[in-house]
Structures are given as structure tokens and as C-alpha cells.
Amino acid sequence: MKKLVINADDCGADEARNAGIFEAIKKGVVTGVSILPNGPAFDDAMQQIKSINSKKVSWGVHINLSEGKPLSSGLHILTEPDGRFHGKSAAIKIFASRLPNRGNAPTGPLLNEGWNKIGSCDKKSSSRTALEEEISVEIDAQIKKLMDAGVFVTHIDSHHHIHVFPAVIETAIKIAQKHRIPWIRMPEEAKPSYINLDISEEISAEAGLFSKYAAEARTRIETSGMRTANHFRGLYLKGMLSLSLVEELLLTLHDGLTEFMTHPGHANTGHLSGPFSAFSTHDRERELATLLHPDFPLLLKRSGVTLTPFPEI
After folding, report:
1. Is 0.85 surpassed by the pTM of this model?
2. What is the residue-level pLDDT of the chain in tens, covering all 313 positions?
3. How far apart are CA 254 and CA 111, in angstroms?
4. Residue 29 · residue 3 · CB < 8 Å
5. Which is it for strands 231-233 and 153-158: parallel, antiparallel or unpaired?
6. CA-based torsion, 216, 220, 222, 223: positive or negative
7. Domain 2-307 homologous superfamily, CATH
8. Strand positions, DSSP E, the chain
9. In whole angstroms, what separates CA 80 from the centre of its chain?
10. DSSP string covering 198-253, please?
11. How many helices (H) and strands (E) does the chain have?
């Protein structure tokens, strides 16, 4: 049997994104949602959740350690002097490193101060580095904020998929287990050969990077006892979702549970600002229109795919 979780990422990024996500939820298309606890529109998302039948949707935490401001105070390695995270490219360099080996630290003006602190810090704990301590504190704070708002968290994933990166995976698993979160995303996907898909070099390289670290983390996740979907889709469809591509995706799904990562929403008309609003482009509306297309239910039926939230454990 082919079961599909259509998961909408970045809920809480801004009101435009939230509006599109909850529109898709109410239409019965989106069955999973990943929420940014430090997103500017987090409170707006919490208000809208109250009007949703929670049995038809799985709510997850979209851990963010790369953009915007953290929830925790006193972070020095994960943040710039202004208190904000380093940004996507710099954060990926940090989390891709298997520290604390100062010799293999990435270089660059944004990172020097942070890496110097890692290399020179006194190891007060025999089991965790200063970097791991900050990662642990912030992930824990983000999960607690979501749970304290009354959300039953079923799954954990992350902005830019950093939860499967070498410097983060162990901490992400431990904190998720602490809060009894049963499902974790495994963003591993082979490059598809859809007829209607023209993959840019940038997207291909990025998707390959995420898949690489997911593959390396697979054994650790499987031995942790946490659950993952059997298959994952969406890395190569970033900003290009169309009905024809969705049809190809559905027709080539394997048996089991597949998580399909999407980013539906409405475009920012210019009145919204924040670290995530620049991503609220017309690509988000294109994804939303594809998911809400009147032919979409027919494609599901024709391909023998059943929509579902993440199953209860």
C-alpha cells in the first residue's frame, strides 16, 4: 500500500506562508506541518491551529539554527555579534564539521570568532563540546515553546535539514527522545528522472549534500528507535512544483510511507519583513495552486496513493 504524508515546511515564517498552509490543510491536502518556533508568525500559526481537526494533521517542530534569532540567550558560537544566527551557508559549514577538532574547522570572516571559541574553550563536560551545548539548549527551547503552546508534536525536522548534519544529529535525537517525539525526517532522495523536471546545478548539488548527510545519519537514527518514513521526496522539486511533476512523483512512489516535503503559501506582497519573508515568493503560490488543483485528487486515486498524517506510535 502506498501512503503519503504531504508535509508543509516553514509554518510560522510569516502570515502569507501561514495563510497558504492552512488553506491547504482545510482542503485536506496537507497532512503534516512543520512549525518554526522562532518564526515571526508563530503566534499567528498557534491561533490558526485551534480551528483545525488535529486528528487529520501531524504537527512537527522545524528546528532552526541558521536564520533569524534564537530563542535562547547567551549563545556565542551559533550566533553573530548581533545575536542572529550566521545564515544558511555559514551555518551549513559549521554543522557539516565533526568538531571538536580545531584543525578541520571551516574558515571565513563570519566563523572565525565562533571557531576560535570552540578551539580554546575549556571542556567542562567530558561528553559534549561547547558547540553541542549550544545546539542542545536551543533545540530544547524550540521544542518546549511549541509544546508549551499546546501542540502535540509528532515529528522533528529542520530548516535546511541541519538535524542530520554531523554536528547536530546526536543532539537532535537525544532531545527528541527526551520529549518523546516518535518521528524524525530522513531527507535522503535519489535524483529523479522525471520527464518534466529540469534540475539546476545549484538544486542538484544542494539536494545531493542533504541526501549525503541523511545517508550517513541513517544507521544512528535506526538504532535510536525513532521512526522515519520509508521514503522521502521533495528535495529536487524546490520552487518547481507543477501538476505534471506531481503526477510523475505519485506514479513512481513505492509501497510504504512516503514523506513529501512541500512549501506552499502566498507570496509576500511587500508589507511583511523578517528573515524568512524573502522566501515567500510566487513559487510558494505555485506549490499551493498545484496542491489545490481540482485534478489532484484524481491523480491520487489513479496512482493508488492514500494521504495520511504520520501514524500514531
Report:
1. yes
2. 999 999 999 999 999 999 999 999 999 999 999 999 999 999 999 999 988 877 799 999 999 999 999 999 999 999 999 999 999 999 999 999 875 443 344 444 434 444 444 444 444 343 358 899 999 999 999 999 999 999 999 999 999 999 999 999 999 999 999 999 999 999 999 999 999 899 999 999 999 999 999 999 999 999 999 999 999 999 999 888 999 999 999 999 999 999 999 999 998 776 656 677 666 678 899 999 999 999 999 999 999 999 999 998 7
3. 42
4. no
5. unpaired
6. positive
7. Glycoside hydrolase/deacetylase (3.20.20.370)
8. 2-11, 32-35, 58-63, 153-158, 183-184, 231-233, 256-262, 305-307
9. 22
10. ---HHHHHHHHHHHHHHHHHHHHHHHHT-B--SEEE-GGGTTT--HHHHHHHHHTP
11. 10, 8
Three-state DSSP class for 10? Answer: strand
Segments making up each domain of the chain, as ranges: 2-307
Give the three cell numbers for residue 210: 542533504
Q: Which residue has the cell 525536522?
A: 157
Residue 61 near residue 142, CB atoms below 8 Å: yes
